[in-house]
Specification:
single chain; about 300 residues; alpha+beta; 7-stranded antiparallel β-sheet; 5-stranded antiparallel β-sheet; 3 helices; about 25% strand
């Protein structure tokens, strides 16, 4: 039989057990809530990681890089096209080259007004050689049935036209007007205009330089005229390819004399190869390159038919 004292003790034991269980259940509930919260956070983090804005940024960066590269290539292509479109090709200089054949540029010979397409009536008599009274001590150079007579041995040096100054012009040079110093000269019913060592004939729209006509007489030699020896007793005067002989108080144009040595030849000559030797042909005259006292010069050659 349970006594009245035992009932309170049992009740008290139950209350104590109940009190002890409540904190444990609360603690267990808090642990469960905390674990649930961590799980949700983890799931949230795990879900959000793949959605980090890496791919969009990478894609944008690649697109920007690609776009930038395309723009850069387009700019380079545009620049190249612009450079190509701005290239200016020089104009043809064929006329200048033709007009400057055999011109020594170091001497500033710039006779660019020579019109080689025009044929003018040129008197070749002043380029036909007159025989020298001296005896040739050397045998001629023979080639092709012709003998080339000279007093000095052959010594080749390149033909370089000499520049006589701005008032001198080669055969074929054309001008529209003459200076006030030009004078009129008549030779065998042919009218010539003479100005400072140069002879002109009238053409349709101006004046063209021609060879000095044999027989033309002037009173004053042009500046720069040189004295050349014909033989032991005779001298001629040489200027720009033309020979003058003193005639009283005047000077008359004469043909070149064989054996005459001149230091320079004008523009208009041409090197010609005859056998093993190279001569300079100026008009109808052949000049042999020689060396006199260590200086390069030219000797008028006499050409004869050999039997």
């Amino acid at each position: 039989m349970i006594t009245s004292l035992q009932l309170p003790i049992k009740n008290l034991s139950f209350i104590l057990i109940l009190l002890l269980c409540i904190p444990f259940s609360d603690l267990q509930a808090q642990r469960l809530r905390h674990s649930a919260s961590r799980g949700e956070t983890a799931r949230t983090n795990n879900f959000s990681r793949p959605n980090v804005n890496r791919s969009p940024n990478v894609s944008q960066t690649r697109r920007k890089t690609t776009t930038s590269s395309r723009n850069s290539n387009h700019q380079r292509n545009s620049t190249n096209n612009l450079k190509k479109s701005n290239v200016k090709r020089p104009a043809s200089t064929n006329n200048r080259v033709k007009n400057k054949v055999n011109v020594d540029r170091s001497k500033k010979n710039v006779n660019i007004n020579v019109d080689n397409s025009k044929h003018v009536n040129i008197n070749n008599r002043n380029t036909r050689v007159v025989s020298n009274s001296r005896y040739y001590s050397r045998p001629p150079y023979v080639h092709g049935g012709w003998g080339y007579y000279s007093f000095h041995p052959y010594y080749y040096h390149p033909y370089r036209p000499y520049y006589w100054g701005p008032v001198w012009h080669p055969w074929g040079f054309f001008i529209t007007t003459l200076t006030a110093t030009a004078i009129l000269i008549s030779v065998e019913n042919q009218q010539y205009h003479y100005d400072q060592g140069v002879y002109y004939v009238k053409s349709n729209d101006g004046y063209t330089v021609v060879q000095a006509p044999v027989g033309a007489t002037i009173e004053v030699l042009p500046e720069g005229t040189q004295t050349v020896e014909v033989n032991e007793t005779t001298n001629n005067y040489y200027y720009g390819g033309t020979y003058y002989e003193k005639d009283g108080e005047k000077y008359t144009v004469v043909p070149p004399t064989a054996g005459t040595i001149v230091p320079e030849l004008p523009e208009g000559g041409e090197e010609v190869r005859i056998g093993e030797q190279t001569y300079v042909q100026y008009g109808e005259t052949y000049y042999q390159p020689v060396q006199v006292d260590g200086k390069n010069m030219y000797e008028v050659v006499e050409v004869k038919k050999e039997e």
